[in-house]
Amino acid sequence: MKKKIVELVKDTIPVVLGVLIALIIGNWKQQYDNQQYIDKMLATMKVEAESNLKEIQETIPKHIRLSDTIQYYMDSEVSLSEIVMKSSGIQLPTIANRTWNAVIDSRVELVDYSTLSVVTQIDESKELLLKKMDHLIDHVYQNLVSTEESDKFLLLMHVSNVIDSEQRLKKLHEEFLEEIGPTAK
To answer: How far apart are alpha carbons 10 and 15 in whole angstroms?
Structure first.
């Protein structure tokens, strides 16, 4: 009987060790695959963030120019449409976040909290910018021919709100790029 137990233990040990080794290798492979996925996603997110940042940096001066133009023509007989045309119009920066949404929708557990927090803030700020831009555009269309100082003042306030949101988005993109660092290529 003792001999059978010893034989059973001898036969069981290699099987148990084999299973443990397979689990360790499987776990290591899963972690490796997850890291590869995150590295690729962060690299793509970095490219998107750099593109977004460039777009925002190009748009802010245009809106500042619009703000200056509004102030210059505040007490004149120049209409809102003329002011907008004189300052090269109103532009909305294109903020891409396709990769962020894909990561958040599929493997959010792999992203650390600080990165996820900044990405979420960027998304929320983007939505706020879109709403502010809608208000700005609505005001311009409703008052295209107006030369009233009060309408120009409201336009100036809307433009200031848009600039504020653009600057917030710029700062958040810079934080995101700093957060992921140079490791994502």
So the answer is: 9
Rounded Cα–Cα distance for residues 107 and 80 (Å):
47
- Helical spans, DSSP H, in the chain: 2-72, 80-86, 98-107, 113-142, 149-180
- Give 11's pLDDT tier (boundaries 50, 70, 90): confident
Distance CA 172, CA 25 (A): 39
Identity of residue 118:
V
Section 40-44 average pLDDT: 86
Q: Using CA atoms, how far apart are residues 69 and 87, in angstroms rounded to an integer? A: 6
* pLDDT tens sequence across 152-178: 999 999 999 999 999 999 999 999 999
Q: For residues 165 and 129, is the Cβ–Cβ distance under 8 A?
A: yes
CB atoms within 10 A of CB 62: 17
Tell me what pLDDT residue 183 has: 57
On the question of pLDDT at 185 being above 70, the answer is no
Q: Cα–Cα distance between 13 and 5 in angstroms, integer?
A: 12
